[in-house]
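Session log. Operator J.P. requested a structure for one protein chain; no other inputs attached. Running the standard single-chain path with token output.
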Amino acid sequence: MPKMKTKKSAAKRFRVRGSGSVKRAHAFKRHILTKRTTKNKRQLRGTTEVHASDVVSVKAMLPYA
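Structure written below.
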């Protein structure tokens, strides 16, 4: 059986923590930020956890994470 390949697009977007949870960056923070409030932009900083219903899909794309 050949080795499973990692989906590189997912590897760039997600990180699996030691506990097994998956972290991701917030969306809507790339461009056209002039119309967004400072509070909104500040709250989009940092990372958050992937929703429980999506964790199985993400882990399938990252077989060795």
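Operator note: The longest strand covers residues 22-25.
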